[in-house]
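Section 3.1: Structural characterization of target chains.
Under the original work plan, the team committed to producing a structural model for every single-chain target entering the pipeline before any wet-lab resources were allocated. The record below documents one such target. The sequence was received from the expression subgroup and is listed exactly as submitted; it comprises 88 residues.
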Amino acid sequence: MTDVLQGLRLALVHAIILHRVDPAKNMHRFYRLDVAPDLFGRWCLVAEWGRIGRAGRRRMAAFDDISQAVEALARQRRLKERRGYIAL
């Protein structure tokens, strides 16, 4: 397996989907975090968020190393879980 294909396989392992639902507040939110390679050999933390069932917003942050991207993913996940999001 080539390095690029191995990297793609590893990137798929890091996808995380978080939900925060509170019917009393009419709150139905999702937050998706993923690590993926870009076309230039860098690794991106892709964050997508919004209301469940609707198109969300997306932000990407590029990193030189996959370990930096995974660390940023873990940091963002901890932040969202402290705010009440739950992993599916």
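The two ends are 30 Å apart (CA to CA).
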